[in-house]
Model the fold of this input.
Amino acid sequence: MAKHAVVSEDQWLAARRAHLEAEKEFTRARDRLSEARRDLPHLFMLCARARSVEFGL
Done:
């Protein structure tokens, strides 16, 4: 387990704010990636039963 530094309240608060900002940027990046996935084109596919009826199988 990592050894944690013991710091003043001001140092802790500054580190916490920096961490929160990094988390916010991560969330924004994840949201952009999710939006890009939702924007992918769709592929039309027939289910196996529909193909068997259509092609007489």
In short: The chain has one domain: 9-54. Residues 9-38 form the longest helix (30 residues).
